[in-house]
């Protein structure tokens, strides 16, 4: 089975730039064992003075997905937890609604349809081919799908 790494497509510029995230949240809490430490609904702030492009997938400071991607993920893995994040731009009064999928980091895929792998360059969400096709059918914006080498 083929697998793909989800990455933010940086051809979309002016995406939300979240400020103060690491001061407010501990990245180690974004796993299923510690998810109870994170409120279900959160507000974070962006400080871009121009119109913000609220794309469907953000890589930084943590992986954030839109409602559209969340619906696809929920079809394939009903056990995933999500934490809601509203990204509010104080400069323009715009906002975007996102979710952090609570996917534990793994060393191997083991046939799962959605996993988080940790590599030297950071953490990545990896999806099976059928999940990737479902995302493409829904015209998600701001997502690059990179083939995972040796995924057969």
Describe this structure in words.
The chain is α+β, with helices and mostly antiparallel strands. It has one domain. 15% of the residues lie in helices and 36% in strands. It is built from three helices and eleven strands, in the order ββαβββαβββββαβ. The chain has helices spanning 21-24, 67-76, 129-137; strands spanning 3-8, 18-19, 41-46, 57-58, 64-65, 81-89, 95-102, 105-106, 114-119, 122-128, 143-147. The strands form three sheets. Strands 8-9-10-1-11 form a five-stranded mixed sheet. The protein has a four-stranded mixed sheet with strand order 2-3-6-7, with no helix packed on it. A hairpin with a 5-residue loop joins strand 6 (81-89) and strand 7.
Ordered list of secondary-structure elements with their pairings:
Blueprint: E1 3-8, E2 18-19, H1 21-24, E3 41-46, E4 57-58, E5 64-65, H2 67-76, E6 81-89, E7 95-102, E8 105-106, E9 114-119, E10 122-128, H3 129-137, E11 143-147
Parallel strand pairs: 3-6, 8-9
Antiparallel strand pairs: 1-10, 1-11, 2-3, 4-5, 6-7, 9-10
List the defining traits of the structure above.
152 residues; alpha+beta; four-stranded mixed sheet; 3 helices; 11 strands
Strand elements, count? 11
Radius of gyration: 15 Å
Whole-number total of structural domains: 1
Helix coverage percent? 10-25%
**Helical stretch tally:** 3
**Could you give the order of the helices and strands?**
EEHEEEHEEEEEHE
Poorly predicted runs are none
How are the strands ordered across the major sheet? 8-9-10-1-11
**Biggest sheet layout:** 5 strands, mixed
Question: Helix- and strand-based class?
Answer: alpha+beta
Give the end-to-end Cα distance, rounded to a whole number of Å. Answer: 5 Å
Average residue pLDDT: 91
The backbone outline, from C-alpha atoms, is: globular
Proportion of beta-strand residues: 35-45%
């Amino acid at each position: 089975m083929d697998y793909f790494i989800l990455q933010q497509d940086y051809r979309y510029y002016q995406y939300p730039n979240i400020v103060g995230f690491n001061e407010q949240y501990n990245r180690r809490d974004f796993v299923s064992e510690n998810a109870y430490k994170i409120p279900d609904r959160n507000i974070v702030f962006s400080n871009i003075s121009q119109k913000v492009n609220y794309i469907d997938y953000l890589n930084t400071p943590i992986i954030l997905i839109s409602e559209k991607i969340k619906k696809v993920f929920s079809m394939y893995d009903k056990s995933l937890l999500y934490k809601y994040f509203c990204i509010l731009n104080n400069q323009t009064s715009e906002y975007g609604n996102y979710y952090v999928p609570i996917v534990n980091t793994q060393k191997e895929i083991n046939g799962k349809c959605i996993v988080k792998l940790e590599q030297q360059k950071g953490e990545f969400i990896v999806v099976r081919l059928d999940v990737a096709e479902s995302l493409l059918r829904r015209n998600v914006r701001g997502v690059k799908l990179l083939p995972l080498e040796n995924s057969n």
